[in-house]
Amino acid sequence: MRASGRNIKLAMAWQSGFAAPASATDAAWTFNSASGSVGPIGVEAPDHRALMGADGDAIDPDRGAHDVSGTWELPLCARQSGLWLRGLFGDAASTTTAGSRGGLDFAAQAIAGDTITVGATTLTFVAADAGINEVLIGATISDTIDAVTTAIDDLDDLTATRFGQLVLIEHMTADATGDAIVTGASAAHRMRPIAATLKGGGMTRHHFTDRTHQSRPFATIEREHSDLTGANAFRVVDSQIVRALNFPRARSGQATMRADVLARYDARSATRSLSATPTALRAEPFSMIGGRITVDGACIGTIDSAALELGVDVTADGFDACGLADAGVIGEPVIGDTTAKFDITARFPTGDLMDAAFNASHVSVQMVYASRSSGAMLILDVPRVFCGRPGETFNGRSSVTAAFTGEGYVDTDAGYRYAATYYSPVAAFS
Hints:
Mean pLDDT: 84
Oligomer: single chain
Helix content: under 10%
Shape: globular
Radius of gyration: 25 Å
Structural class: mainly beta
Low-confidence stretches: 319-323
Number of domains: 2
Number of helices: 3
Number of strands: 29
């Protein structure tokens, strides 16, 4: 019988520290069918260079240091993604139960007569002299979104917060009271509701921010494979740390992310080391709601494709600590500064993005993912990104695109380089 990927089971358990036994409740999780790596082989690759004078044969390889790194292609979802967010960020800065939520995603400037509906209230856009339940169209789309945010925030029992071109609406009561509140728009191509009603009342709001040199949690990963026997039945990776999470922008379909990890060592076993019944975190995939590059809140580019990588500098250390060489085990890693990188291919409805790159002025990046059925949501925010001058591609008579690379810097007003706001049915990931 051949080993089949469908018969793999995975579990994760947090450790109290580097090289410490797994101590926290473990969780079962999944990865995408594309790929998943539980750790490479801990021996240096053979050197195939021929040795002159020995019939051209290569000598046997010596055992070298482990490079226990790996990559997981993961579903971006309402439950499992919290494990990886905690692995990158550390503990959430705040964890509170939240009310029902939804939102309006603005793609274009409103015109007079457009309406949006929130519960029993209909707000009408006007060009001048706004009255009760009217919203004044601003000189820019950014001004209009600010006015909408204020108008919804003034409604009873609701709060509204702006994230770039998205107005996030939340009910003040931290339960399902607001789940039936209707959200709608007369011109959905200009302002699209996330869903027909607010959803997800009673979920937990996890707010993560990067903080330089803060400790990151370590985890034990165990792979079980029912097709394999003996020492190959289980494989354990110890003291895994998340080095980076990569979030692509997808126009449609289920969203994914990639986790780059480093661990202390890997070992095979014929017996299980973690719980026989780990808590199953059923995948509830997110869809892409919006990916925006903004200047002063206004969208300045049509993004064809993009990848946002949030990371932290992690250096494997301790190969030879105080003369006690153990090349087969990675020592406790050194945690450095956080990093944020952005790669995009964009078209040009305006020249603002190009101007920002050539003038070395910063832009902001927001990526929003959500489950339209449950109200779970993930908002990624990098408030201060500087883009390099792009290369351009000319596609015959059709379009001109440009490839930008950007790097995030700490925004002193926000107090972080990057942040994630995650609404999940899972109360805690510690």
